[in-house]
Design a protein that fits this description.
Blueprint: H1 3-13, H2 19-32, H3 46-57, H4 62-70, H5 73-76, H6 81-88, H7 90-107, H8 113-125, H9 128-142, H10 149-169, H11 173-187, H12 189-201, H13 203-223, E1 228-234, H14 237-247, E2 258-264, H15 267-280, E3 282-283, E4 289-290, E5 303-308, E6 314-321, H16 322-330, H17 333-339, H18 344-350, H19 352-363, H20 367-378, E7 383-386, E8 392-395, H21 401-408, H22 410-414, E9 416-421, E10 424-426, E11 439-442, H23 459-491, H24 502-508, H25 514-523, H26 528-536, H27 541-554, E12 562-564, E13 572-574, E14 586-591, E15 595-600, H28 604-607, E16 614-619, H29 622-625, E17 629-638, H30 643-652, E18 657-666, E19 669-678, H31 681-692, E20 697-702
Parallel strand pairs: 2-6, 12-16, 13-15
Antiparallel strand pairs: 1-2, 3-5, 4-5, 5-6, 7-8, 9-10, 9-11, 14-15, 14-16, 17-19, 17-20, 18-19
Helix pairs in contact: 1-2, 1-3, 2-4, 3-4, 3-9, 4-7, 4-9, 6-7, 7-8, 7-9, 8-19, 8-20, 9-11, 10-11, 11-12, 12-14, 13-15, 19-20, 23-25
Bound molecules: manganese (II) ion.
């Protein structure tokens, strides 16, 4: 092909392109890459030509196409950015420069947050280069078979982790699907082949089925004189794989591996067509989505409905206008073609995502946190729900009710019990019901648990829970530390007059103030022997010696016990060797950073530990803390898989100990009795409320 032929093929795609500039660029590129071959053995210039073709399909203007032709020149040939500037002007030269710099960044040590930050800094200045990078990546993926297997995997992984989500985020669906399928083929060849085979094997059957829907639809549309185009298509291999993974099923159990698409002339026709579809087949109301009225953040617009088709199979039907379809296939690129001519500020306004990232970059100084945010923001942003006040909350896919509560308000998250949505009660770890109005259920006695951290997806919820846990742990450590300190003073018969000055304590244990001393002591970060050694100088020395003797002769019987209970709950760790329960006679050992490890008094493991390192403990009496309050719950539920497990989890979330359970299942009903030991009545109340939110529970009674 001559440069003239290539220019013509681009102009065939987009007649507005500048022929002269394309031929000039192409001659320059042919000369620059002269003698270079690709790994496939083809002349190198084939690659930039493919990139330029993709850019033309994306309706990019001539300058972007020229930059696409030139994108590897600075990196791979003797020419510099300066020379490109002289030949083609500043705009094209700067685009080439940015693309080159991004390649340099990505060749760097590893894909750190810093890398992404730099990448986005360039992108926000010149968004067009995303199109060049994606076109470049697409052609590289198409010729991946010529590279070594390790390179194939590494490049595919980067494509799947970064470029495909980026394409999705920008609404470039045709890019996204193609990149995903190409990458998946190299990353998981067996699965890829299995799905591909299945699709081929069942293609006749599927064609027939698609026809059984398209045929009556066409007749209906003709009768009603609605002009539209109806197509059926199979879903992409990687999307099918993702569906199999999320639903945990085999490919022949997936009903929606294809979709029907209706392309209408105008928006009102879309809704009319929807009416006809629902006329022919019953829709599943819960699956209807109106992305025309409420577009996705990437501007995707369409109506989605799932109908009960022939043979009772579920079929997804997408209805949209031609314009909307262009946007879905080629993304905002179609829009961009015009918007690129806008000023930078106007462009940023239109590219909400890039400007959001720019802001976050300034607000989040820590690289790891920034990377977290970035991954979050690159995930398909498909989850959203409404507050009762009508505010739309958008969250990453897989976000839970807890994430939603924290997104509304931190306090709401900290006291969240569950939610009510679409007439159902949802647990805190349930995924948010997309598009529904979610009313958070809260209680002042509810509080976060360590297990919450694994239930949330968003950085905000993670950070708020961690902050609360840290703060509460500190408070509890100070309380426990004070108790241990008081007990040691008492055991050594040190009176208030004799007791060491705070300043001496801080100096001896290298802490800023007395409360951090208590905190460290309570957390178990200061060994008991050190406290003992330090205090010896303030005590009656003969007593100190006699205490050691006492240990040897009488064990710990002479010691004043430390009372423990609800106020130290985060610092109480029940040893797995002897499984003590609140109320059992117990002793403890301090564990660094964790507080007290509780053992039964007669535990063999405990008795191997020197007496001076042990703490005598006493459970707070019921009057003090209602500790070990026995409680019997009666639960009535509809039988379903794993309901017992969910009931246990609801109880375990509140640190209560289950002592005995009886479950009976009869005619689809479950009757259960759970005996448990709780710290106080507030905790029992919390357990009761949590149980109410378990799916299938009909009634909970506290006996
Ligand atoms: Mn390239």
């Amino acid at each position: 092909m001559t440069p003239e032929d290539i220019a013509q093929s681009l102009i065939d795609i987009n007649p507005k392109l500048d022929r002269e500039l394309i031929i000039k660029t192409l001659n320059f590129v042919i000369d620059a890459h002269k003698g270079q071959l690709r790994k496939s053995g083809q002349p190198y210039v084939v690659h930039p030509t493919n990139v330029a073709k993709t850019l033309a399909e994306l309706k990019m203007d001539t300058t972007v196409i020229a930059a696409g032709f030139l994108h590897d020149v600075v990196e791979d040939t003797k020419y510099s950015t300066e020379e490109i500037r002289e030949a083609f002007g500043t705009e094209i030269a700067e685009m080439v420069d940015s693309v080159t710099k991004i390649s340099d960044i990505q060749k760097g040590i590893d894909r750190t947050a810093e890398t992404f930050k730099k990448f986005l800094a360039y992108v926000s200045k010149r968004p067009q280069i995303i199109a060049i990078k994606l076109a470049d990546r697409l052609d590289n993926m198409h010729t991946l078979q010529y590279l070594a297997p390790e390179r194939q995997k590494a490049i595919s992984k980067e494509t799947l982790d970064f470029y495909a989500p980026l394409a999705h985020r920008l609404g470039l669906y045709s890019f996204k699907f193609e990149l995903e399928d190409l990458a998946f083929k190299y990353l998981n060849p067996d699965e890829y082949a299995a799905i591909e085979n299945h699709l081929q094997f069942t293609s006749k059957e599927r064609e027939d089925y698609i026809q059984s829907i398209i045929f009556p639809l066409n007749i209906k549309m003709n009768l009603e004189q609605l002009d539209c185009d109806i197509k059926g298509r199979s879903k992409h291999i990687y999307s099918i794989y993702e569906k199999m993974k999320t639903r945990g099923c085999k490919i022949d159990e997936l009903y929606d591996i294809f979709a029907i698409r209706i392309i209408a002339n105008q928006i009102t026709d879309c809704y009319v067509a929807l009416g006809y579809v629902h006329n022919l087949w019953m829709p599943l109301y819960s699956r209807f989505k109106d992305y025309i009225a409420i577009p996705k953040p990437n501007l995707y617009q369409s109506l989605h409905t799932t109908i009960i088709g022939p043979q009772g199979k579920l079929v997804e039907v997408q209805i949209r206008t031609k314009d909307m379809n262009e946007t879905a296939e080629y993304g905002m690129a179609a829009h961009w073609a015009y918007k690129f001519n806008l000023k930078k500020e106007e462009l940023e306004k239109n590219m909400d995502w890039v400007s959001k990232i720019n802001r976050m970059q300034k607000e989040i100084p820590n690289s790891t946190e920034f990377l977290g945010f970035l991954h979050e923001s690159l995930l398909p942003e498909d989850s959203y729900a409404w507050t009762p006040q009508g505010k739309k909350i958008t969250l990453p896919l897989g976000a839970t009710i807890l994430d939603f509560a924290f997104a509304v308000h931190t306090d709401l998250g900290l006291h969240c019990l569950g939610a009510r949505a679409a007439g159902k009660v949802l647990t805190i770890d349930a995924p948010i019901p997309i598009g529904e109005t979610v009313q958070i259920l809260q209680s002042n006695s509810q509080e976060p648990q360590e297990t919450w951290l694994s239930m949330v997806k968003t950085q905000k919820a993670q950070a708020s829970i961690k902050h609360w846990l840290r703060k509460t742990l500190t408070t509890q450590s100070v309380v426990l530390g004070q108790k241990i300190w008081q007990k040691e003073l008492q055991n050594l018969k040190i009176s208030n007059v004799n007791s060491p000055l705070n300043s001496d304590i801080c100096k001896a244990f290298k802490v800023q103030n007395i409360s951090s001393f208590y905190e460290n002591l309570g957390k178990g970060d200061i060994p008991l022997e050190e406290i003992f050694t330090f205090l010896k100088q303030y005590s009656d020395s003969s007593y100190a010696w006699s205490k050691l003797k006492l240990f040897n002769v009488f064990g710990s019987s002479e010691e004043t016990p430390i009372s423990i209970g609800y106020n130290e709950r985060f610092l109480l760790n029940y040893a797995s060797c002897c499984n003590p329960l609140p109320g059992d006679p117990v002793e403890g050992i301090l564990k660094s950073g964790k507080g007290i490890e509780i053992h039964k008094e007669d535990c063999k493991i405990l008795n191997k530990i020197p007496q001076e390192q042990r703490l005598t403990l006493q459970w707070e009496t019921p009057e003090q803390a209602e500790l070990g309050q026995k409680c019997v719950l009666r639960v009535e539920a509809t039988d379903r898989v794993a309901i017992e497990k969910d009931i246990f989890n609801a109880i375990a979330r509140h640190n209560a100990l289950v002592k005995k359970t009886i479950f009976e299942s009869k005619e689809g009903r479950v009757n259960g009795r759970v005996d448990l030991l709780a710290f106080n009545s507030a905790q029992i109340k919390n357990i009761e409320q949590s149980l109410q939110t378990v799916a299938g529970i009909r009634k909970v009674t506290v006996l």
